[in-house]
Amino acid sequence: MLPRALSEVYENIRDFFVIRDGEKVVACASLHVYWSDLAELRGVAVAEEYQNQRLGGKLVGACLNEARELGIPQAFCLTYRASFFERQGFKRVDKAELPRKIWSECYRCPKFPDCDEVAMTYRVE
Asked: How far out from the chain centre does Cα 37 lie?
């Protein structure tokens, strides 16, 4: 996950779905809308001791449901956990198919242009 400035966290906090165990946040995911036809799933994370309980899948489902409610036809993610997203119905694509993401944010990443994440898309129905 990319480090974010505290100001960015506050700017995007309302994009997040979280699962808590008491006061402790144990899983999160966000849907960031780029345009009327494209949104990104970001920050999908589950604390290690809470993994393999389908929490990540529930959060991805919540994000995709929100995209559906907003009428956004396509969602995407950049990930190191491609197999997890494939199980959720995402398909691998070339990063070049995501120009709005690449030029709006990726260019600021220290790994740019040698990103080693897998680009994936999901057709929201």
From this structure: 16
User: Distance (Å, rounded) from C-alpha 79 to C-alpha 86?
Assistant: 11
Q: Which of 102, 116, 34 is nearest to 72 (CA)?
A: 34
| CA dist., res. 35 & res. 49, Å (int) | 35
Cα(109)–Cα(73) distance, integer angstroms: 27
The two three-digit tokens of residue 15, written as one number: 């994009």
pLDDT tens digit sequence for 55-111: 999 999 999 999 999 999 999 999 999 999 999 999 999 888 886 665 556 656 666
What values do phi and psi take at 106, rounded to 5? -60, -35
Mapping DSSP to helix (H, G, I), strand (E, B) and coil, where does residue 116 land? coil
Q: Which residues contact 38 (CB under 8 A, 6 or more apart)?
A: 72, 74, 75, 76, 100
HSE-CB for 115 with a 13 A CA cutoff: 20
Contact between residue 90 and residue 121 where contact means Cβ atoms under 8 Å apart:
yes
The overall pTM is greater than 0.90: no
